[in-house]
Design a protein that fits this description.
By secondary structure, the protein is mainly alpha-helical. Helix content is about 60%, strand content about 10%. It has seven helices and four strands. The strands form two sheets. It has a two-stranded antiparallel ribbon with strand order 1-4. Strands 2-3 form a two-stranded antiparallel ribbon. Helix 2 packs across helix 6. It is globular, with a radius of gyration of 15 Å.
Length: about 140
């Protein structure tokens, strides 16, 4: 799906903690396939790209896989606050919020088009903004 987003749209979505947390928690439940309430490194491996619409520029499939793994590991390590090898629901929320705000800063106020997966947090931000503009949010 193609969506048009800008930085303020993402920032507004993250700032609405109720809507943002509902979306983040929904994604958490999808990723927590064994239902243990935490995400392991393998639960998140390769999922950040569809969650956040990240792309990796690489010269080969092998290089792309290496770069994706490095990025996933770096992000996982940053948000595994207790260093237990898992990310809990609250850590996951903080991770998504920080990643979305980083994307918002990178985009700025200029609208950009993104091709995103249906399960992407970018879709949730787009849907949130659409409802907000139409006055459908409480």
């Amino acid at each position: 799906m193609l969506v048009i987003i800008d930085g303020p749209m993402l920032t507004t979505f993250v700032a609405d903690s109720i809507s943002f947390n509902e979306s983040a928690d929904e994604r958490f439940r999808v990723l927590d396939t064994n239902g243990d309430g935490v995400l392991s490194r393998s639960d998140l491996r390769g999922k950040l790209d569809w969650l956040m619409a990240f792309e990796y520029e690489a010269q080969s499939d092998e290089e792309e896989a290496r770069k994706a793994k490095e990025m996933d590991d770096s992000i996982f390590d940053r948000f595994d606050g207790d260093q237990r090898g898992t990310i809990g629901q609250e850590e996951f929320r903080r991770m998504l919020a920080e990643l979305m705000l980083a994307v918002a800063r990178g985009i700025g106020t200029t609208p950009v088009g993104l091709a995103v997966e249906e399960c992407s947090m970018m879709i949730k931000a787009y849907e949130y903004e659409s409802k907000r503009i139409r006055g459908l949010l409480a």
